[in-house]
Amino acid sequence: MVTMKDVAQRAGVSIATVSFLLNDTKPVTAATRARIEQAMLDLGYRRNMVARALASRRTHIIAMAYPALEHRFGMSTSEFFTSAAEAARKEDYHLVLWPVGNDGVELRELLGQGLVDGVVLMEVQLVDPRVDVLRQSGTPFALIGRTTDLDGLSHVDIDFDATVEDAVRHLREHGHHELVLISGDLDDPRFHDYGPWVRTEEAYRRVVASYDLPIRIIPCSDTTQAGKAAAARVLTEYPETTAILVLNEYAALGVVAGLKHTGHDIPGDISVLSLLTVPETAAMADPELTMMRTPGPELGQLGTQALLRQLEGDDPLPPQLVPAKLHPGATVAGPRAPRSKAGAGRRGARKARS
Amino acid sequence: MVTMKDVAQRAGVSIATVSFLLNDTKPVTAATRARIEQAMLDLGYRRNMVARALASRRTHIIAMAYPALEHRFGMSTSEFFTSAAEAARKEDYHLVLWPVGNDGVELRELLGQGLVDGVVLMEVQLVDPRVDVLRQSGTPFALIGRTTDLDGLSHVDIDFDATVEDAVRHLREHGHHELVLISGDLDDPRFHDYGPWVRTEEAYRRVVASYDLPIRIIPCSDTTQAGKAAAARVLTEYPETTAILVLNEYAALGVVAGLKHTGHDIPGDISVLSLLTVPETAAMADPELTMMRTPGPELGQLGTQALLRQLEGDDPLPPQLVPAKLHPGATVAGPRAPRSKAGAGRRGARKARS
């Protein structure tokens, strides 16, 4: 291991002089600089960003903190990450992914090393220990997501209210009024406080109440298997259902598979609308899912911008909420026959069809 | 921005003394140390890993270099990454993900900053510019994958030969001899040299030749849409096919969907075997895919171990090839009727069944 002392000895200067040069704290003559640089080269001592970072406190590296062990890194996440990385690259920053847990412990350790200029936080919880860790460390950061108490935090997020409103309106316009939401599983301790699930469910309750429709919600984790089970529950508990909204993307694939397995035609017998997903996942379902498209590319870019503006001392990016937009697919149509809340169940309608 | 000079002024010592303390290059008295540390605290100057790294050249951070813009970060990748992160954590290292391109340009920039102790390389190409970049930088590294010229490189990889042998044998044991491989698309410039695709195709050519079967390969990129198109090509070009092997996991979902769309029963009319995937993706198909399970958890861990042994000066990890193992599903069965290469096509058999 080559130290500054070794460099100083080889260059025939004092350690302080090497330090002055590396940290740019005091001018050194061109001749001395050349001697020190030659010594560093000879000894394989890289005069690198570590040294410069020590002086400037800037590495031009930013991290996206993503709790990869708690949250599946799926197609949608990938869009947030790659768009954030591209946005960083355009501004001459490097974005790296930190797979740190939700509790903030590993985040604190990494921040303590001072190697990044700032952090973009993903998969934000309503009360998020990572926000406190970031504040205490003095590290600039931006949220893709929202805590309950935002208190001036720089953030961008999905507009869950507008997304759910548009989704329910779309189904209403097709004539559906027997709806079920297959939501997230808020009983899962990893997700009980997970913003997107809590906010979507709240929005759904509000929106269907405004239409004077019953609130029917079935919890479901984000796997295909869980989606199949949830579809079965819908058929048993709410047989009158003509349209299902599914919050999670892999669950949505399971809902379609499960309904088809039990002999239901989609959308002939029952419509399915995926609330947050991306075209590539939607294409995995057969028929292809009608969906509200997750604005991952927009939010990855905006979240990075929100952070970089802080780092560059520019005007702060105002908080932005971006709705998921309706994206055509083949799983939504009108209900097969007119029905009322108290009227004929869809089971009868399906029999009449087959 | 607080500099060493500010700290020195506030502590009433020379910059050199601050440097001696931070870089551990010369002893300072306890009283001086206390004064400097108090000054750093007062000024918010973190005596952090940047300083220590400058002295010790060690950060205990390792990076997984993953070309996220070229390669989809899917379910399988996620397994490699999280198992690698867990393996690192157990040894008190942090693993971060670097979404650097295949050409090595951004990798070189990041390495030049000297912030990581080593690199695990993912999605390795047969001739991989990133290997040269890593060698030139003097950074320890290990490959999850293999270049053609390994030349003592520390590496672990999928055993593609054993995987393809087992897969073809499984289909042969079910009585199939009209096989097609839906492979990767080696004409795509991003993938022309991509190890897993080249090696799988080579292995397939060798294995089916050893069974004296015709070599039938259809190129296909890794998307559901491409898989649907490839399934249609199989039906047109090789209507006698009774079993399809699919290299890529999202393509495999498309193959199943495409075959079903054209009225084929799986596995009644045609069997599908996914060559490299994980249970969660397999569950998205209906019926659930029979597969060779990608050994992501094993390889993520082994790749990290291979690197950490270098960093810790332990005995090198011997190169290891891990086969994907057969994992039961519901897309493989015997062909519907006995047939010979020149015999009745499967179209007739399917008609007889429906």
Supply database-style keywords.
six-stranded parallel sheet; 45% helix; Rossmann fold; 434 Repressor (Amino-terminal Domain); elongated; 3 domains; six-stranded mixed sheet; alpha/beta; transcription (chains A, B); homodimer; DNA-binding transcription factor activity (chains A, B); Peripla_BP_I (chains A, B); DNA-binding (chains A, B); disordered C terminus; 12 strands; LacI family transcriptional regulator (chains A, B); 354 residues
- Assign an overall shape of chain A: elongated
| CATH architectural category of the largest domain in chain A | 3-Layer(aba) Sandwich
Which class do the helix and strand fractions of chain A yield?
Answer: alpha/beta
CATH superfamily of the largest domain in chain A: Response regulator
Helical residue percent band of chain A: 40-55%
Number of DSSP E strands of chain A: 12
The greatest interface here is: A-B, 67 and 68 residues
Low-confidence stretches of chain A: 339-354
CATH fold-level topology of the largest domain in chain A = Rossmann fold
Assembly classification = homodimer
State mean pLDDT of chain A (0 to 100 scale): 88
Q: Give the count of helical stretches of chain A.
A: 14
- Rg from Cα of chain A: 27 Å
Domain unit count of chain A: 3
The top-level CATH class of the largest domain in chain A is Alpha Beta
End-to-end distance of chain A: 78 Å
Plain-language structure description:
The structure is a homodimer of 354-residue chains. The first copy, chain A, is of the alpha/beta class and 354 residues long. Chain A has three domains: 4-56, 434 Repressor (Amino-terminal Domain) (Orthogonal Bundle); 61-158 and 296-323, Rossmann fold (3-Layer(aba) Sandwich); 160-294 and 327-353, Response regulator (Rossmann fold, 3-Layer(aba) Sandwich), CATH 3.40.50. Chain A has helices spanning 4-11, 15-23, 30-43, 49-56, 75-90, 105-112, 129-137, 160-173, 195-210, 224-237, 249-261, 279-282, 296-312, 346-353; strands at residues 61-65, 94-98, 118-121, 141-144, 155-158, 179-182, 217-218, 243-246, 271-277, 290-293, 320-322, 325-327. Chain A has a six-stranded parallel β-sheet with strand order 2-1-3-4-5-11, sandwiched between helices. In chain A, helix 6 packs parallel to helix 7. The longest helix of chain A has 17 residues, at 296-312.
